[in-house]
Each structure stands twice: as C-alpha cells, then as structure tokens.
Amino acid sequence: MAAALLPAFAESGSPLSETLTFAEADWVVTPHDETPLLTSGWTRVPLPDPDATERYTGTRLGRRPRGTDDAPVHWYRFHVNLTAPIDGQLALFTPRFSDRARVYVNGSMIDRTFLQPERVEHGWNHPVWSVIPAIALEPGRNELLIGLDSPYTGSVGLSRVWLGPPEALRTRYEISYMLRVGAAQAGTWMLGGLAIFSLGVWAVRRSETLHLLLGLGAAMFSVRLLHYFLIVPPVSPAFFWWLTVVSLPWAMLFLFLFAFHYYGIQRRWLTAVLLAIAMAMTLLLAPGIGFDAYESAPWVYLGLIPIALFTAGLLLQRAWLHRGAPQILLAVGYGITIVASSHDLLVMTHISSIELPYVMPIGAVVLFLSFSLALGARYVEWLGEFEAMNRTLEARVHERQVALEESFERLEAMGREQVLADERQRLMREIHDGIGSNLVATLAALQSRGAGDDAAVRALRGAISDLKLTVDSLEPVEGDLLSLLGNLRYRLAPQLEYAGIEMEWQAAPLPQLEWLRAPQALHVLRIAQEALGNVIQHAGADRVTVATMHHPGSGADPGTVEVRISDNGRGFAAGEDGSADGHGPCGKGLANMRHRAEALGGKLRVYSRPGAGTSIALELPVVLSVVQSAG
C-alpha cells in the first residue's frame, strides 16, 4: 500500500505535498542497546500491529522485562523516496504505540517519547507527534525507523503511521490527543471534583448515604483514569498498576451499592459478598504479596462482568417500572458505561483495532454525570414534595391561627359577657335590695294604715312588677326563650288572677336563639308585658292564651319562632298594618311593641275585630346574620 503510493509522489514533482499513510512496515527485534542492521533480518508486517510481542516470544505478554536494561526493542522500518529536497518540515504521526518510542531518520535519532532512558515511562495511550527537519531528509531513498520497547509491561504494538506536512496532520493529531489523553485528564478532574463535593456533603450530613457512595465511586474512577494519561507514575510502576487495576472493582462496588440504596433495596448478604470480593482482589494483587496486577488485569475485568450486568439489569428493570427521569438517567448512564467498557475490552484484547481510542474515560464522566443528575432530579422531586408539605402545613397553621383567633375572640367575648353578667348581678342586687325593698316597704305601709288611695297602691304594685320584669331581663337566659317567658308568667300570674283572667299556657319546644341576650330579652319581655297589660286593662277578657311555636325554614334555613298572646275580649277594629283603628288606648302601645319587634329583627302581627278578641303574634328569627342592638 505505502510502496504503491511512493512512485506517485516521486512523479508528482511536488514531493510530499500531501499526507502519506503507511499500512505496512518492515519489522525486526534487537537487544535494548543495539541498532538494527539496515539490510538483514527484517519481516514485512501489516499495520496496525498488535501482535509483535506474541510474534517474538510466542505469548501475548512474553517474558516480562524488569527494567530498561532487559527490554528488547521492536523496530519498524519505512522508506520514503524524494525526487528533490523539501522546503520546510515533515510531521510523523501515529495514534497508538506501546510503550516507549524513538524515531530515527537516515540513521540519526530525531525524537523520542521518553525523557530518561533508564526510567519506566508509559506512553501506551499517547499519540506520537514528531517533527522531522528538512536537513534530516535528502533526495532519493530515505529510511525512517520507529523503535519500541516496554520496560515494565513487555507489551509492544504500533498503529498505522502518517507522514506529511505538519499543517495537514495537526488536526488529526489534536483530535487523537483529545480523545485519548484530554478526555482522561478532564474526566479525572471532573470526577475528583465530584468526589470532593459529594464526600463534603456527606461529611456535613452523615445520613446522606447516596452522597457517600457517589463520592467514593467517583474517587475510585478518578484514580482509575490516571493511567490513561500519566506517562511517569508518581509511585513505583508495580504500585501504580495495582492502584489502576483494583480501583475498578471498588468503583463497581460503590456504583452497585448506590443503585441499591437509591431504590431502597436491602441485601446485606450480597453487599457483604461484594465487599469481600473487592477486598480479596485488593489483597491478592498487592505488590509483593500476591499476583501481578498487570498480568491479572484481564481476569479481574472478566470477573466484574456479572456484577456489571446484574447492576445494569436492576437499573433497566426499575426504569421500565417507574419510567421517570431519575430512573431513566441511571439506566442510560450505566448502559453507556457498559457499552464503553465492552468497546475498551475488545480493543484491549485486540479483537478491535488498536487504533481505536479507549472511551472508558468519556463513559465514566457520562456515567457519573447521569448519576448526579438522577440524584439531583430526585432532590427536585423531594423539594416538590417538601413544598407541597409546607403548603399543607402553612394551610393547617393558618387554619389553627384562625381557630386560635376565633377562640381568643370568643374568650374575649366571654370575658366581656362575664363582666356584664357580674355587673348585671350587682345591679340586680342593688335594685332588689335598694329600690325594690323601699317600694315593697312603702306598699306594705300604705296597706297597713288602711289608706284608701287605691291609685297609689296600684301604682306601687305596677312599679314593683315593672322592676321585677327589669330584673328578670338581666338574668342570663343563654338563648332560652321559654325560660324567659316562664319567668314572665310567674311574675304576671298574680295580676291576671287578681283581675279575674284565667291564663292558659301552650308552650311548644323551641330552638336556642343564640342572639338572645339581656338587651334583647328586655324587648321580648316588654312586648309580652304590654300585650298582657292591654288584656288586663282594656280587653275585658276572662281568658288569655300564651302559645309558642317553631316554623322551620327550607334547606339550611332554621326558620323562625313565634310567641302568640290571644284573649277572648271585646277586640277592636285593626288597620291593614295591624295598628289600632283611631287613637284608642292601645294605639301607642302597639306602635312601641312593633318598634321593639323590628329592633329584634322580627315582625309583630295583630289580629283583632270587635267582639272576637285580639291575638298578637311576635315572630323572631332563629339565626341573625347581624345581632340587633338593644335600643
């Protein structure tokens, strides 16, 4: 392929103005301190060449070297024919090699990927970019050599090689570097930052187990990604590869536990088993104690496949059941990681081309980004629930506040009523013991002397009766209209009997009138007193009937109550409005009664005609929207 392209370049008259791709090379192996002979021992091999070690030793890993003095060098040779001297530089680019490379042009070394020949440096995931000066090239046949050695892993490989003007290859190199090295570096920083943040949240709130597991998983993956871009290990190569290999099972364990805790699954025995497996791997691969971590890495990765598939199945099943954004994010993120891991495993085992970049660093970032978003989505859901709870609590608090305010108002009202009741009691005692006693004593004195002043006696008796009525109105009635009328019956019964009038009582059960207080009670008593007084003074009747009845309303309306006072006296001619015809003795009294009824929010009706008696009906509402004033 490359040989077929060379004549075309030679005949173009503009040598290497375009990129040249080498898909084949001559290959030979020499000891570490020798340069290959230019004409003997070479074998033609295709590129990419992942099997150089196996071709040389018979096994994939071969004999592991233990330092730079024990590592053989695999040489790859290329020829370039130039028809004339070139103006400028050429660039050599290859996306993949293992593990250290040096570049020779016409027998002179122009570049190498390692700084110190006696130090182990890992360049296995870095692309090669070498600039060949024009002075190193000459017209005619030019020989390029790429020598590879692997002082620690022993694994050697080379992808295809591109040669051409730097400006033609720069973009290809930068993309390759970004995918292989830049992505791993960015992933390490991102996962490290996520680990610090999540562990910080857990340190403040120890109940946030999900943050602990997410932080530990991100920390393990950030350690895992170090070997993708670190050329010089910060510790010994054995310890560095041990960290690289064992960080993966721990990361998988924390992700598995994160999924379990996220869905509230309790499997203590399974957690204990996975924890024991991770600890066993850690100890068995420890440097100087167990198996070599680098050689055992493929078996470790294969052993993690069941855990990865089990976790993936769990997340997919939950996503299918719930189909919410958090569940889908978890399943998709983990699924991308499974795909990325499978891709890298195929590249690592040489089933796929070694030129393909490892995508696990990108998959790890996507994985933890999706897990973080799922956790954030869950917190958003919780915040929504908390806001709903807060709204409910605020509504309940408002209801309780309103209830407390109403209770406080009732207590204030009860306090005011108690003060008024106490004041009424005081007034009742003062009236009874003071004015009442004096009036009774005066009446007794007049009667004992046999004075004939009947008018004075009647006046005193009326004053005493009126005073008693006022005292009765001050008694707490608690909305009981029947009790109020019963006290009136007790007070007026002697006067009716003295006047020769028989009283009939027809009391039907009545509902409580919550608005009936002392001022309203006085209005009711005055109306009844005026009606019974008219019977005594003007009706000429020998029987009076006091009846009560309840008229229910429709629906939620409690209706009205009625107090009816009827006599069998002479009656009178009533007007259309129920007033007395003309200016008789009861005309002004009826007007006062009607005024008092209106003050109670009720109505007063008068039914009478000459010779047929009189009936006065007081209709009162059971419930008042606004309690009427007393006067």
Structure summary:
The chain has 631 residues and is α+β, with helices and mostly antiparallel strands. The chain has helices spanning 2-12, 52-57, 166-204, 209-224, 237-262, 268-284, 293-322, 325-348, 360-448, 454-474, 481-498, 518-539, 587-599, and strands spanning 20-22, 24-30, 43-46, 73-82, 90-94, 97-98, 100-105, 108-112, 128-132, 140-149, 157-158, 161-164, 502-507, 543-551, 560-567, 603-608, 614-621. Helix 10 packs antiparallel against helix 12 (518-539) and helix 12 packs antiparallel against helix 13.
Strand order of the largest sheet: 3-2-4-10-7-8
Give a count of the beta strands, DSSP E runs of length 2 or more.
Answer: 17
Structural classification:
alpha+beta
SSE ordering: HEEEHEEEEEEEEEHHHHHHHHHEHEEHEE
Number of helices: 13
Low-pLDDT segments, ≥5 res: 1-15, 581-585, 626-631
Largest sheet: 6 strands, antiparallel
Rounded radius of gyration (Å): 56 Å
Per DSSP, what share of the residues sits in E-state strands of 2 or more residues?
15-25%
Give the overall silhouette. rod-shaped
Helix share of residues? Answer: 40-55%
Mean pLDDT: 82
Distance from N terminus to C terminus (CA atoms, Å) equals: 120 Å
